Structure formats: C-alpha cells, structure tokens
Amino acid sequence: MSDSTNESTADSTNDSARESTNDAAKESTNSARKHTALPKAQTLIEALPWLTRHHGKTVVIKFGGNAMIDDELKAAFAQDVVFLRHAGLKPVVVHGGGPQISAALDQAGLVSEFKAGLRVTTPEAMDVVRMVLAGQVQRELVGLLNQHGPLAVGLTGEDAHTITATKHRPLIEGERIDIGRVGEITAIDTGALQALLDDGRIPVVSSIARSQDDAHVYNVNADTAAAALAAALGAETLMVLTDVEGLYEDWPHSDEVISRLTATQLEKLLPELSSGMVPKMEGCLHAVRNGVTTARVIDGRVQHSILLEIFTDEGIGTMVVPDASTGETS
Known about the structure:
With 330 residues, the protein is of the alpha/beta class. The chain contains nine helices and 16 strands.
C-alpha cells in the first residue's frame, strides 16, 4: 500500500475519532444542561399549588428591619414584590423608617426618645418623621419597584383618608402618659388602595395617619398600620419582615422557632414577648381575628424570604392562623 493511501486512511480514522469525541462532548454538555435545569423546573412545580391558591388574593407586606437599610436586601425585596404582582397576587407594601428617622432627628439636633416601645413624637419630630417617611423611604422603595415597570404608587395614610387616628396615650405603671403625635388607628378607608389594586398597581403606604380630631397628622406604628390595612382589605395574608427568624419557642434559652400557632396560643404568649416583638405579634393577632387567613413573621435578612415563605413547601418564619383554622395552610 502506498504512503498516500496510508495517510488517507489515517486522516479518515482521525476524523471519525474527532467526530465521535465531539458527539460525546455534546451529549455530555446536553446532559449537564438537563441536570442543572431540572432543579429550576422542580422549584416551579413546587410553587404551582401555592400560585393557584393565592392567585387574585391581596397580600399586605410590612417592610422593615435590615431589609430597609441593606441595598442587596432592598433590591431582592423589590424583586419579590414585583414577582407576586406578575404571579397574579395583589401586593400592598406598608413601611415605617425607624433607622432613617433616628438619623434625620440626630442631624436636626433632636433627641430620639422611646416610651412603651414607641417613639416620643413632638411636633418638631413629627415634621421630620413625615419628611423621612413620605419624602425619602417611600420614594426610594417606589423607585426600586418601578425599575421593573410602571407598577408602584406611593401614598401616606393621610391620602384619601386611608388611615385615621386619634392621640395614643400608652399606659405605663398604671398611668396614661403623653408621647406626643403618636396615633391610635380609629378608621381605615380602603377606597384609594382598592382602586390602585384594581388597576394592577402596587400601593406603597407610609405609616402616617390623619387626625380624627384636628388638622394635624400622627406617627403610627407600621406593624399596627399593616395589620389594620390587611384586615380592612380582607387580605389573604399579612407578612411582617423582621430581623429575627420568627417567634422563638423559649428565647433566650432556645433559638427554636415556632413554625405555626393559633390566635389563642399567641395571645397567651404576648405577655412574655420582648418589647420589639409585641407590636408585630399584636398586629398578627389583630389580622387573623379580623378576617385575614394567615399572618406571618419572617426573617427579612434572608434574600427572597417572601417567595420562600409563600411558594415553597417548607416556608420560613412563624405563621399565625385563626383559632377555627384546621388543616394545612401555606
């Protein structure tokens, strides 16, 4: 056999080997792609029953804690809320702004003082509170949401008489004390919120209320405001973002989180809770006793905690249900 024939045969063999190797590589790549994509498909399938259950339902979310001051958490929160909207739910966001208000008061030379777990709000402090909530925190949050489309609309409890309040005088050592322009909610008007929801918008509500008695405004606890709005809107769920994993079983002796409890069980625990958790859990209790199907306290330090809670089998945080609730709810 000639040298040219041998070379031709060798080239042919090499080409076949290369083709075989390329085919094997392609098959391996396709297999790897299928393997990496499968968990994504499984996650979507897991979410299907929850998507079906919550479709068309209103979800009120209280935005607070570290999620308000960490840029990555803020961005993830905005993505979660927009996802809920595109998944067929009707999210309403309610926010306070404790850290931002304290910083602004400090810059203005005003002292931050708390009594009974509430910020003492002088007329001068109320001007700062109003400016920070409606002019800073709300605008930033609306901007983050609207990066994903023309969805979010900001308003305060003053607008369209959404939240009305009267002066709150907390009881300390048996005596009612004056803590300034801090309000106790007396009425909710959901007209403006419902119109926005019906139009496919995402309302972002600052926890400021109009006065029932005069032309002033009140600083209202955001947890309380979120619970009152959830009840008035007939929401399916109230979600409260916190800086803890949920309600602990026996804090500080144990860090085991209570995953689910009824309204009566929660009511019994309230006297034992830390002051920071009381308004959150009182809000949850008010919500489920006034028509809201579930109230959840979740860890806002976890990215996409809202989606994990609503759309996965395990969920995270603590869920409160009405006393009459039986069976599985998520």
